[in-house]
Amino acid sequence: LDAHNSNLQQNQLQTTEVMATAIVKETTPFEGQKPGTSGLRKKVPIFQQPCYLENFVQATFNAVSTPLADEGNLPGSTLVVGGDGRYFMKSAVQTICRMACANGVGRVIIGTNGLLSTPAVSALIRRRHARGGFICTASHNPGGPDEDFGVKYNIANGGPAPDSVTERMFKETESISEFRTVAMDDIDLSSVGEHKFFDGTFVVEVVDSVSEYVTLMKELFDFSKLRNYIAFKNLKLKLDCMHGVAGPYATRIFVDELGANADAVVNNIPLEDFGKGHPDPNLTYAKDLVVAMERGIHDIGAAFDGDADRNMILGKNGFFVTPSDSVAVLANNAKSIPYLARDGIVGVSRSMPTGGALDRVAQKLGVEFFEVPTGWKYFGNLMDAGRLTICGEESFGTGSSHVREKDGVWAVLCWLSIMADRDMSVEAILKDHWKEYGRNFFTRYDYEQVDSASANAMMAKLRELVASPEGFVGTQFGTTHTVASIDDFEYVDVTNNEIASKQGIRIIFTDGSRVIFRLSGTGSSGATIRMYVDSYVSDESKCYGQASEMLKPLVEIALTISDLKAFTGRSGPTVIT
Questions:
Q1: Distance of CA 124 to the CA centre of its chain
Q2: 284 exposed, middle or buried (CB, 10 Å; 0-12, 13-18, 19+)?
Q3: Is 12 helix (H, G, I), strand (E, B) or coil?
Q4: DSSP letter assigned to residue 129
Q5: Catalytic hit among 38, 117, 122, 139
Q6: N or C: which end of the chain has fewer CB within 10 A?
């Protein structure tokens, strides 16, 4: 084999002929393998238990063996596999490849060294017409031997598995008695190549992790215009990849393709423990970027999370763009973004907790608007139905119908396109937006790793108010806030009539302000309580105040109504956004 490989040209695909035998192993269920909004997330030592990963992967294969719509049968199909480079990923992708082979999959497409960003996986699934894919990531959660790991499955549209599929997966985990694998050595993922097994009936195709995604971005944006703009303006970028998988993508696009300085992209080497950092692009965990931007040297800054689907946008002097504002600005400036100018916008959407800035843009544009639960899969259904183009979540996720995941690098390209087309700074673009539409002041308080029983007790108390709102609705807090309604958000998917219930407690006041409470489904242990506060101001003279000051009275009202401090024993949140 070595002699054969030495004769291959550098860019040729390498072929490995290996015979393998399928093996069926007995197992028993593990408790708690219920996928959250983005797959199954647990601490690494839990995933390292014998059969734990195998059980979940086999349960997934069992659940998806029945095709959705026209996605085709599993035997002989193509899957995409990759991850964000966190600890345990290298081992996990090898396990998934073996089990894919044993379950009849014909081809696995995987990035070099197993690395693929979440939006890149979505793009590969769609562009290669794969049946689905496994993504090894815990997104914005920490990595390392004692930190977080995760596995999620995306379907043939490139998006996360819908509720109907994840429910089947969970049921399979509760009754699983065996899993299928094969006996073979680890696959060499270090270079592009094609490895054949079972006399060529199973193929692992190792692809360049970045190339296909870059090709897609070139189809969406005018790289020549952006390159000239960066050069002409001597534009200074500061992009913090937080040692996640965004590094190779950001370096290739912004440095190699667009000509930004080499030091424009920092922390761009993916590390298993993210450099002992917390790869969550917000004002707390991306503090180094905030400090660098506050020096006034750089014109635009951005941070990306572990799997490169989330982003935080900052302007010069550390001017912060909330995710709620970011998606509204992108929609309002779609004509400055080449592919959106060409194809137009059919609809926009935000997750229910996200600030309402996008709502007013939709009204002006005369397009459909959808308010959906947290979870990107709800956007995907609307995109597949041809009713949605741009969408976003307050949790630093923005995206469009080019893939079926949120996309951090894409978001920065959108902002650069607007800056280049309008010849305006980040701050000027956003302040111009507020002048036209008014401003939604928005904040989110995260209380991480709260005792689950305490968190559930607090939510139960709030649901008692939902069940018996008579004594609560009409209550006045302070001099300006009177409760207009309270509910537990329920969403009926217009594309398939599936119902998602208990998606978060909404308290709406007579002036349109909102307070929302929900438990996050993205943590690996304990509970994370998220408290959202959203208040709209139409008076331009009030639009430029500090969000913390403008929202302080409503934050205190929210804490009083929920009795959060008493339930959790927390004097303050872990993170404020």
A1: 16
A2: middle
A3: coil
A4: T
A5: 139
A6: N
Residue partners of 471: CB distance under 8 A and separation at least 6? none
pLDDT band at 19 (very low <50, low <70, confident <90, very high): very low
Q: Do 36 and 521 contact (CB within 8 A), yes or no? A: yes
368-376 contacts at long range (C-beta below 8 A, 24 or more positions apart): 370/494, 371/491, 372/491, 373/489, 373/491, 373/500, 373/503, 373/504, 374/37, 374/503, 374/504, 374/518, 374/521, 375/37, 375/38, 375/160, 375/351, 375/521, 376/38, 376/159, 376/160, 376/404, 376/405, 376/406
139 noted as active-site residue: yes
Dihedral sign from CA coordinates of 37, 43, 48, 51 = negative
pLDDT value, residue 299:
98
Sheet holding 237-240, edge to edge: 265-266, 237-240, 300-304, 311-315, 319-321
Q: Which residue type sits at 170?
A: F
3-state secondary structure at position 463: helix
Say what the pLDDT of residue 526 is.
76
Q: What DSSP assignment string belongs to 218-248?
A: HHHS-HHHHHHHHHHHT--EEEE-TTSTHHH
- Residues 302-336 as b or e (16 or more Cβ within 10 Å = b): bbbbbbbbbbbbbbbebbbbbbbbbbbbbbbbbeb
What H or E segment, with its residue span, contains residue 342? helix 338-343
pLDDT number for residue 71: 77
Q: Round to whole Å and give the CA distance between 246 and 117.
A: 7
Give dist(CA 239, CA 255) in Å, integer: 11
The whole-angstrom separation of Cα 89 and Cα 457 is 35
Asked if residues 453 and 526 have their Cβ atoms less than 8 Å apart, the reply is no
Cβ–Cβ under 8 Å, residues 92 and 83 = yes
Helical spans, DSSP H, in 385-486: 408-422, 426-437, 452-467
* Strand ranges (E), 231-378: 237-240, 265-266, 300-304, 311-315, 319-321, 347-351, 368-372
pLDDT at 270: 98
> Please, is 205 exposed, middle or buried when counting C-beta atoms within 10 Å of its C-beta (0-12, 13-18, 19+)?
middle
Residue 503: strand, helix, or coil: coil
The helix/strand/coil state of 436 is helix
**Amino acid letter, 214:** V
DSSP-derived secondary structure letter, 71: -
For residues 132 and 39, the answer to whether their CB atoms sit within 8 Å is no
Give Cβ neighbours of residue 260 (< 8 Å, ≥ 6 apart): 230, 235, 237, 254
250 DSSP 8-state letter: H
Closest C-alpha among 172, 159, 113, 99 to residue 133: 159
Give this prediction's pTM.
0.91
H or E element that contains 101: helix 89-102
